[in-house]
Amino acid sequence: MNFVSVCAQTTEAPREVYVSATSTALRCNLLLPPVGNKAATPIELNIYGKAGEKISGLPKNSLIFIHGSKLRYDLDTRTFSLHGGVIAKVDETFPLFNTVILSGRCVKDIHREDERAFKTTADGLMICNQTLSVNTGRNQADLFNFYAINTNKDKLNNAELLVNFTRNGVGLTINGRLVTDEWTDSTTKERKHATKIQLINMTLAPKPSLPGKEITPQTTVQEGSKVTSLWGGKTLDDNPWNDGGLPDLPGNYGSAPDLENAPF
């Protein structure tokens, strides 16, 4: 599984690019809202086919909601990008979303003595780093680094769970969010940033069932029972998000954003 829903602001108008000799896509650079004391997250959006018609006229600085996109990671450039999804133009009153759901397999064992993988700070924080391999088709996969951070008093101790239950080859589904650290290089004095996935919760893949153990249903439906209509008879075709999304709002949203003065 690879599923992303985020709010973002465009930092440029969408532009058409060639993705092959015969097909094009619309591409646009975005900023995701900061999380806590983190910086805004720069990321690239790619929309293919007719879905691109809905964003082709978006001006710079538009606030948008992206639902059902896929997250990709380029190991060479160390950059994240979004691909596909349903796009709706919103305003600053729209709730902020930053949800990343990924399913795959862990690619490394975690050793407590390795501070790059697990450490406990003087303040009592536990931090654990793991990497997830997510299939992208045709025997290929993306590698996503993610981390868990919590105190030893938290009810949900994700860092401890990662240490105890994940290792190379273990199946895992994570629910997290994209966060970005920003700093000034002490040597070059340049502003730098690094984006990771911060774990919120996770689900380990189930263990193989024992041979001969059958799964029995917990509920039964009496034969001939009448099935009632759900949602008053509405269907997915009645969903306004399927035909243009939310209406455009008048006006603009100020000057181009930067990492220090994000609009959110």
DSSP helix count? 1
CATH topology of the largest domain: OB fold (Dihydrolipoamide Acetyltransferase, E2P)
Task: Round the mean pLDDT to the nearest integer and report it.
Answer: 83
Main sheet summary: 13 strands, mixed
- Low-confidence runs (pLDDT<50, min 5 residues)? 243-264
Order of helices and strands: EEEEEEEEEEEHEE
List the main descriptive attributes of the protein structure presented here.
264 residues, OB fold (Dihydrolipoamide Acetyltransferase, E2P), 2 domains, 1 helix, disordered C terminus
Could you explain the architecture of this structure?
By secondary structure, this protein is mostly beta strands. It folds into two domains: 2-97, OB fold (Dihydrolipoamide Acetyltransferase, E2P), CATH 2.40.50; 102-204, Nucleic acid-binding proteins (OB fold (Dihydrolipoamide Acetyltransferase, E2P), Beta Barrel), CATH 2.40.50. 3% of the residues lie in helices and 44% in strands. It has one helix spanning 158-165; strands at residues 2-10, 15-18, 24-32, 41-48, 63-74, 79-83, 86-89, 98-106, 118-120, 125-137, 140-151, 171-184, 191-204. Strands 1, 2, 3, 4, 5, 6, 7, 8, 9, 10, 11, 12 and 13 form a 13-stranded mixed sheet that branches. It is globular and about 60 Å long. The two termini are 29 Å apart. Mean pLDDT is 83; it is low at 243-264.
